[in-house]
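Archive transcription. Copying these from loose printouts into the bound notebook so they stop getting lost. Printout 1 of 2:
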Amino acid sequence: MEGRILGNRYELIEKIGGGGMAVVYKARCRLLNRYVAVKILRTEFTNDEEFVKRFRIEAQAAASLSHPNIVSIYDVGEEDGIHYIVMEYIDGITLKQYIAKKGALPWREAVNITIQICSAIEQAHRKHIVHRDIKPHNILLTRDGIAKVTDFGIARAASSSTITMVGNTIGSVHYFSPEQARGGYIDEKSDLYSLGIALYEMLTGRVPFESDTPVAVALMHIQSKARPPVEINSDIPQGVNDIVMKAIEKEQSKRYQSASDMLSDLYRVLKEPDLRFINSSIEEDFPTRKVEVIRSDDLIEKEERGINSKSLKEKKRDRITTWLAVITSLIIIFIFGYVGYSIVMPSIATEKEFTVDNYVGRNFDEVKEELEKYNINVKGKRVYDENKPKGVIISQSITAGQKLKLSEQNTIEFEVSDGPKMVKVPELKNAESRLAEAELRQQGLNIKIVEEFSDSIANGHVIRTEPVAGEEVKAGTVVTVYISKGPELKKVTVPDLIGKTRAEAQQLLVASGLTIGKIEPADVINDVAKIIKQVPAANTEVNEGSAVDITFETIPDEKDQGGGDQNTGENQGDSGQTGIGSRKIVTEKINLDDPDSYGKRIKVHIEAIPSDTGKAEVLLDDTIRKERFPLTVEIPVPQNGTTKVKVYLDDALYVQLER
């Protein structure tokens, strides 16, 4: 049923409960976008028109109840023979599960829960609705500790059609009132008896009457006196004990006559735990009445007539009493015979043998619950299946139609779908592409490679995956792996280098994101030489990081020029530099030892101090993007001399070199 939509509105999500009459699903109301509970009538009851009619009428009547301790009913419907009721979804557990988990509850907690239930019952009784199936299984506790009574109206509908059905009475027999066990008249006081039994269980952790068979328990409700709860749990105050014993009196006239009366005592006992609650239902047999004045002679005459007629009246009364006793005995024998035949005989009949049904395609949990009612051991083996939803039976060890003797220990094994095999997408970010592909294939996943640029992930490594890491997918799912191509190369414009010195050219190229390529003439260049040719030409667009080839004019060394002595400093020009001779170019790479300690852009200042002049020359002064490192720097070194180089990053000395 999971996934089905009822009334073009209620989408069934998962089974959350079930009983002898119905199965309950968690569902989503597509119209109001909220979770609801949908109770679906079991198929074995759908052909009983009278039952279905009562089911709908009473469910609609219950929908009129509005109370904070009553589960609200929103809708009633029928579709393709499926009869369902839509009600408030409660995220919690039943009172029965709560007692099983905690055992006997502290008496104040038990009384407070009972007050909430009794308040709900009081509201229902005002609307002339008798629940008839009050038990901890039908009380839901929210996460906030609020009690909610459910199944209002349904029990009333069920009572007339299923009173003799074993499957539907066995779950409630521990909470039956004596009149329910006898098949007698049921009224509001029957609900209060069941509530008293529920309070008894909350206080002691167990029900007052237990036996091997439902019939025996029913008879104990009729005949046996319950052991006072205070004898089981000495922490229970006397007042609470009195309320329980008064609520579970065998005779209806001795119980609480209304939910309001019981509610009043429950509130009082919280303030006065040891207050005694005595049953005050004894009626006065001799009410005061007016009597005529009788004379003495009349009195004598009446006494004589009374004596003579007394014996006749007594004889007549004795005969009537005898007949009434006989008739009463016959009625009791008939009732017990009828109950025994209706409950015991079907049990005996079904205990002899069981015919295995075809369970393939059904929900495993539902089948397990059904078979365990017949003490059949159920085992489930989970297997992956692409075509069957999770929890659906694929095969069974015993074929349909085979009969099992219920006096023996029987086991049916089922192969149950666990749905398609699911795997988690591994975390592959920054992994090398070949290792990532191997990991995905090992997980049984298929691969699609997509390359894209990345400023933060190294070339050939994984940027991300779709589906994302940690997501569960079916085996064989295609996972798209995005592989880095490194930073995207941008287009830059080549600067005009004609007429520039080597140092000026290097500074312009670095600022544009370019590098110096082939140099002509090679090896030895004069510092004042000017560039006469460049490739690519100025204003050409090229990829960032490209090299530019340059050609310098040829200038003879000072020793080859006339017009003065080299050592006199003549013909030195206006530069003030002394003894500038030929130099060679040494290439040096500046690496970042700790890239994470810098931002995306780094301020770079590089200066050189050649030994032939002793003066600082700026080789580079600019802000460079971090991914451009390592930087290639060309250092001019005098012939037969050295050059000291200082590198500053973000205004801090980074490294000193000597070449």
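Printout 2 of 2:
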Amino acid sequence: MTDPVTPDGCGWRSDLPTFAGTPPRVVKLSLADFVRDASSEQVRSWDRSIPWLQRESDALVRCHEPARTFTAILEYELPREFRRPDVIVLENGLVAVLELKGKESASQADIDQVAAYARDLRCYHAECEGRNVRAVLVPTRADATRRERDGVTIVGPTGVHPLLLDFAREATGPSLSAEAFLRPDAYAPMPTLVRAARALFEKEDLPFIKRARALTDPALRRITEIAHEAHRTRTRRLVLLTGVPGSGKTLVGLQLVHSGFLDDLAIPRATGRPPAPAIFLSGNAPLVAVLQDALKEAGGGGKTFVRGVKEYVQQYTKRLEAIPPEHLIVFDEAQRAWTAEHVRRKHKVTDALSEPESFIHFAERIPGWSVLVGLIGTGQEIHAGEEGGLVQWRRALETAREPGSWTVHAPVDLESVFAGGPAATRWEPSLTLDTAIRQHHAEGLSDFVVALLERGDAAAAARLAEKLSLGGFPLRMTRDLEMAKAHARRRFDGEPLRRFGIVASSRDKELPRFGVDNTFQATKILRVGPWYNAPPTDPDSCCQLRSVATEFAAQGLELDFAIVAWGTDLLRVEGAWSIARARRGKDLEDPFRIRINAYRVLLTRARDGMVIFVPPDSDLDETAAFLESAGFRLLG
């Protein structure tokens, strides 16, 4: 037997014989020393569970000699996340994750929780890559009968050692040492957008997983090369980076602005002061508010880190002699740029230019060289004035004062927009991001949403939903709002960094009757920064499940888990989508497309899964039946 060790990162770890032979009181004291804020309920749970865990460990060792080398790890804390699976057993080439619940049966939230632990270890733990990671839920008052659900094995305490024995027999591959498993740098989760922004601003390394870097780094490297080329040749570039929702476009833009590669490229100005190398601009006011709120503690730097497009346009339109200090300008969601007519109405000017025209002219004021980077999301035009599309950028180049100095860099998919235009073109394969990393284990979510909304193909959506569920991205549905809320609260109980909230369409008229206040009066006073950033106990936090974010407050932002309230503004009627009951917006060229895009935004906000709340209104019965047939599993 080895001596028990209590390293940083867990409450207990030892081989199974040592764990089984240690007095329960000693194990409990070790756990309490690690979990300093343990509640009385947690301590009682340890008192109940440690003895039978030791008995099951001893039984496994007695019937399987190789089990003497297996490792028991209790209260392992996932680095940077503060989540703690109850028990992890390292069995040679296999990792078993056990979550204990003091009840007779398993709830869906319990199942999803332990499935997420196993999924995240597979995705983000370097030592778990290529290994079998098994999720086990142990209702401590259940019997030894095994059940399988959503990739999770459910079994009572007396069935644990036979289950671990079966795991041991299927385990292959080299043994995994506790020291290697517990290395703090072994677990590197994909950061949320806000946490990544903080890290970039504070010059910290981003804890990217390999897969995320493999998907976004080619675009980042290519845009860096284009900037250096523009500096060297004293030319101007329009770079368009396209991607599906959640594919990392915004993160690439933030990295461009706050990496150091432009520091030596700036051309001195007459003032002698070194100009700012780059800026990130967004027409998405909630995104600006959330990022600025997240960064306000860092010396107020959030307002120079990211700015609103409208404010920037006003500044440089009113002062024609003003020269932007930046050489590289990132325009987030560039496909949503305002038309000239919309600028005319919003800015109250008679000779307005479209936003793309304004930015081409601003860039041409910058001495020497400039790069405009447009981040292009697909199917996300949800505001009036945003329906002009990418053709506006082609028309803007036709108004350039220096047409011969411009080159367009874009994916080949945009060739029909820019080919034959006034600027040179280069088609760049690396400038398209077609895999979602917001839903870091749900590569098929974008395809699922297309099947659901664009094609209305329930069978195809159901096949994709099954893959999503097995990959660790659960899709649930309920007609009971309180059940949805209870599920979210149970699912993320004890995980203070996780964020879950209610999102809903702005155009539905009926949701307030069912407890979802999406009215203009309610949503206009939403404090969007605290809604996303504040701790779960804060009254303004999304986790309070009181206030609602519409598509306008959700676009470009993310939650760990979303309760999506489905309204009557997008109904299934006789087998097709209908917007006949939607509250109509003004100045919309294609209101149906705007509604589809709004629900696309709502359905792609979450990183770890969602539950759809369909109000118990008979007008929504066909919609509920369609969603269930498309793969949303009923709660309860």
